[in-house]
Design brief:
The protein is α+β, with helices and mostly antiparallel strands. The protein has 15 helices and 13 strands. The protein is elongated and about 95 Å long. The structure holds zinc ion (ZN).
């Protein structure tokens, strides 16, 4: 019997706000322990939380980016448990009435479950909660740092729509792309801004019931998620194939041993005794408020890539580069407006420009020529005024000085020689000086023509029109 994996992900993302969720303490990474704290985030008795409005906006914005419904009524709840990193002994979260629900994320993926290079994972909900502090264990004692306690945290829950490690990896990469582009979070995994719980089960192919759900907790790297699934899926299949039975449990991934191990079974699952948070009003966004958040929706990476391909006819590789580097993509668009060959513009923007920027330590914002100058440069080539080799020289010069391409061509005398009389003279000289290669070409060795062309270009100081040179040489030698 063949088995398949069913995977759902719960992704926790720290929101990019200046202050924490319920108090004015700074939301920053790397401060000295317990310096960004106050009675509210330390959970002192009698304090009252005040909701961070920007966090509410980022939550709803995430919902919009992930094609979610935004309910007119949402509320906060207490999730009760004791743990040293949570001084209040409860976490404020959204239990049954989240701020966003029923969305989806489309992303690039080639593999089972994809169509035309795209896959879709449904989003159950993205709800707002708060982060907890951080425990550090030393030799003989442990310490807890509450700087992170009360940092706004978004939990993005997916439906179990993924079928393997690669698909889960592609989903996470794309999710982070979207969140970074939307300004929701910096998603710095090194700083623990994204953490992931993985739910995975296996079942016979064709079955529609879900197998026992195994949860792998607190993954902090996407390659870790992929490796954990690469281990866990065959493990589960092996158990079932041997006639064993899997039961619901929580496991942890050991990145050194490269295996998962059991942490706790369903029997010791927590009962969190959720109840509505009495200190916070329900969240009921008005139309005006929603419209303001909606106005912050940017063009998302996948849509941008697809637009670069369809609008400018660029190859997928070029579109990918211009999607990832937004300022470079914007520069390209400013230059490529209404040009016949956007691909030529893309070549300069993707290859020549970054190379010059890197060599000179210049930033894109300080480039001396305007995007329109690239259009002029490409026009000079298209109209036959200069050849592509000279264009490279012009580019280097316009990068250095900011002068207009036409001015540089004039100044450096780069105008292409398309005067057939002049080219014929060059060709005659080259044929006379190279009887061997000429005879080779006449005898059918095509490669010999390239050598002769090269000689003519050299003689013309790179200014001859290469197309004409090839034609004239061939005509003269073949007779
Ligand atoms: Zn505080």
């Amino acid at each position: 019997m063949e088995y398949e994996a069913v995977i759902g992900l719960e992704t926790h993302v720290q929101l990019k706000t200046k202050s924490k969720m319920w108090c004015g303490c700074a939301n920053t990474f790397g401060s000295d322990p317990n310096t960004n704290v106050c009675p509210v985030c330390l959970g002192m008795p009698g304090v009252l939380p005040v909701a961070n409005e920007e966090a509410l906006k980022l939550t709803v914005l995430t919902g919009l980016l992930l094609n979610c419904e935004i309910p007119k009524f949402a509320k906060f709840d207490r999730k009760n448990y004791f743990y040293p990193d949570s001084p209040k002994n409860f976490q404020v979260t959204q239990y049954d009435r989240p701020s966003t629900k029923n969305g989806f994320l489309d992303f690039e993926f080639n593999g089972e479950g994809s169509e035309n290079g795209l896959a879709r994972v449904r989003i159950t909900r993205a709800h707002l909660e708060e982060d907890v502090g951080k425990n550090t264990h030393f030799d003989r004692h442990s310490g807890v740092d509450f700087n992170r306690a009360g940092v706004p945290l978004l939990e993005i829950v997916s439906e179990p729509d993924m079928n393997g490690p690669e698909m889960a990896y592609a989903y996470l990469k794309s999710l982070v792309d979207v969140l970074v582009r939307g300004g929701i979070s910096d998603c710095d995994l090194e700083k623990g801004m994204v953490r992931c719980d993985v739910n995975v089960s296996v079942r016979p192919v064709g079955s529609t019931t879900l197998g026992a759900k195994i949860e792998i907790k607190n993954m902090n790297s996407f390659s870790g998620v992929r490796r954990a699934l690469e281990y866990e899926i065959p493990r589960q299949i092996e158990v079932v194939k041997r006639g064993g039975k899997l039961s619901q449990e929580t496991r942890r991934w050991d990145d050194v041993a490269n295996m998962t191990e059991s942490m706790r079974s369903k029997e010791d699952a927590h009962d969190y005794r959720y109840f509505p948070e009495p200190d916070l009003m329900p969240f009921e966004p008005t139309d005006t408020w929603l419209a303001e958040v909606r106005s912050r929706v940017p063009e998302l990476p996948l849509a941008r890539k697809q637009r670069f391909i369809t609008t400018y006819g660029l190859p997928a590789g070029d579109a990918e580069v211009l999607k990832d580097n937004v300022p470079l993509g914007d520069f390209f668009e400013a230059a490529a407006k209404d040009v016949k060959h956007p691909k030529s513009i893309a070549n300069y923007v993707i290859n020549n420009l970054p190379a010059r920027l890197a060599d000179t330590g210049t930033s894109l914002a300080d480039v001396k020529f305007p995007p329109a100058a690239l259009r002029e440069l490409v026009d000079l080539v298209d109209s036959g005024k200069i050849n592509t080799k000279s264009a490279q020289e012009v580019f280097v010069e316009m990068f250095a000085t900011g002068e207009k391409p036409a001015v540089i061509v004039e100044k450096k005398g780069l105008t292409q020689v398309s005067d057939t009389g002049a080219i014929e003279k060059f060709c005659d000289d080259v044929i006379a000086a190279n009887p061997g290669p000429s005879a080779d070409f006449k005898a059918g060795k095509e490669a010999a023509l390239n050598f002769l062309k090269g000689q003519v270009m050299k003689l013309s100081k790179g200014k001859a029109n290469p197309g004409l040179v090839g034609e004239i040489l061939a005509r003269k030698i073949r007779g």
